[in-house]
Amino acid sequence: MDLIKKALCVLICAGVLTACHPAPKQTDKNGIIKAENSGEAVIQGELVTSTTEKNITDPAKTNSVLSATPKAIKAEYKSDKRTLNINAEVVVSETGTFNTYTMEKQPVTKDLLKKISDAYFGEKAADIVYDEKMPGYILGDVSSNNYYTLSDFTQTSRIDNLIEATGVQKDLNPWDQNLYLDGRELAFPSEASIKDCEDFISRTGLTDYQYYGIRSYGLSGGDPYYLVTYKKAINDVPVTTRVFSSINFQVTEEGIYTVKAAFYNYILQKNDVSLLSLESANRILEGNVDAILIYCSEAKNNLYLNFKDDLNQIGTFNIKKIALEYIEKTTGNSSEIVPAWRYYLSPDNQYIDKNIILAVDAVSGDVIY
Q: Which of 85, 87, 201, 204 has the fewest Cβ atoms surrounding its Cβ within 10 A?
């Protein structure tokens, strides 16, 4: 169970509803607090009148919303239970319009697999052999425990959009206790590691994936490495999904050691949608502050789902960055990609935990968590 806890970095909102306008109607199992055009909300059976209704404006065209968006914001929202502290930079794209999309798997074709193989194995790509048992490709001597693999999940329809290339020699500990929260430079430069990843992206033609962030590992032992993440973007705006849909690189001193990627296409649904302003989104979040339950480890460096008694509920949590991005919003068995005001949480008021999703749908006003 402890490993499960460490593997999860998610945010849960309770099924308790609080006041805002648009007011929350219900919280569904997918983590969406539904909004409706009412100034009242039911909190544990009690009818409460919203005090922030006058601050919620109707959605407007993108240009007018973005032109009125500040570059930074400071605010503090308090309830009887907790405090939401915002001291954040605000990041918005100059894309001009935002749309809504659906998502579908993008199978890894033979052509893409060859490009990935060539980029990963380099000059030794001609020496790889196919192993039907994996299924996938192997470079090196398996019997000597000194080899690399490229797992070919195109042979299994369930995960035919996933690939993973890695070696077996190094100990790359991925757990939370191995992460340097200060993002420090390791013994080898991060700039060169990012450059290696950029070259990989260029060689494979995956140029719709953009650099998203880098994290340093090696605090608690094992081989030090950088985890470099690239996300698919729509008009230069990153897309965050609940399923794994990024390209992650583990980069050691010798270069790229592991590549893991899952590929999706985004299908246009509604063009040039109107957006809620950041001020309106902040008021919606303020109205739901009591419904946001965040739990953390004793070291207060990671956030978790509330299912363990030894986790501490945070009374004050901090937001260091707000960005207008694309977020996957799941309702029942269907999902869509929507523009949303995303709030980046910081457990220690310094390190930003990008694994946590907390956002306000910029179209509907729903709170997504």
A: 87
